[in-house]
What does this fold into?
Amino acid sequence: KIFGIKYDDNFKEIEKKIENKIREIDPSLLFASSYFSRLLSSKIKSLEEIMEQSKEESNLFVRVVKKLLFSVSSHKPLLV
It folds into this structure.
């Protein structure tokens, strides 16, 4: 929902939406778009698979998720 992805979007559309949203929130975190692309693709089965990556990659991923959630919640209330 954060990225505005629809069920019938193809992979290229998904990547573009992810990049645009991250660029809108904080362009310095654009490198993280590949993590979200993999998370939302059929190649990754769970969030745990992404978190199994190196500790540094996991920390960067968590940082991006926090920024995204903060950005979205500042526009409207976010229930977690």
